[in-house]
Amino acid sequence: MARRRQLYEGKAKILFEGPEPGTLVQYFKDDATAFNAQKKGTITGKGVLNNRISEFLMIKLAEINVPTHFIRRLNMREQLIKEVEIIPIEVVVRNIAAGSIAQRLGIPEGTRLPRSIVEYYYKNDQLNDPMVAEEHITAFGWATPQDMDDIIHLTLRINDFLTGLFLGVGITLVDFKIEFGRLYENEDMRIVLADEISPDNCRLWDAKTNEKMDKDRFRRDLGKIEEAYQEVARRLGILPEAGARDMKGPETMQ
Ligand code: TMP
Ligand code: ASP
Question: What region holds the SAICAR synthetase/ADE2 N-terminal domain (predicted)?
Fold first, then answer.
């Protein structure tokens, strides 16, 4: 079989040309980076788990009418997606203080925020993804005010939905990062959820013990990284090794 043309290689994923125009193949690697790639490593099996977890979450979001780039999973490490024009903004939602907000504003990690806070970062590795305001985004034309309306509205719905979904399996959604793209269909343009949603770009804490179940285990050298990602997949009911019924629904925790 002819090798697909590689279009882009990022820190955790590779994008290949898709089988039809307007599609791409998104390949999930085991590579992990942190602190703008100053720290590098491999988390064995991460790509397989993130492919599954992101598929599961995008399908669930599509069921509540959040448009996404996801079409279908192709195999253990690849999924077919719609080609979109990525908006160069990382949208971060925080429910509980952790990571950079805890450091920057001196809020003890674990403090529930008065309300969910949405932040924007300009996707630019050379500049170390600086935080920006909506003013910068619209003034520099990275997104229009109409795009931002759609992005904020979708982001808050995604946060509400995922918070409930994770809580149902005994996981607190502390914060997460998402990205959006412009999907051009005929004459229309729609903003859709793109990239991935996985323990690489969420903070997920066990609801009872607050144990970290996400990439902070890698960032902070806490060990048991693979186990944590697997446990997230297991609780969502999507661990491939779970047996013959490898696509059962979420399992509810008491
Ligand atoms: P932060 O506390 O380091 O700003 O991270 C907030 C959330 O965004 C956290 O869930 C991790 C995620 N994130 C990414 O996905 N990519 C990044 O480059 C950074 C800095 C954070
Ligand atoms: N993935 C990002 C990087 O390597 C940062 C992070 O997730 O902490 O730069």
Answer: 6-235
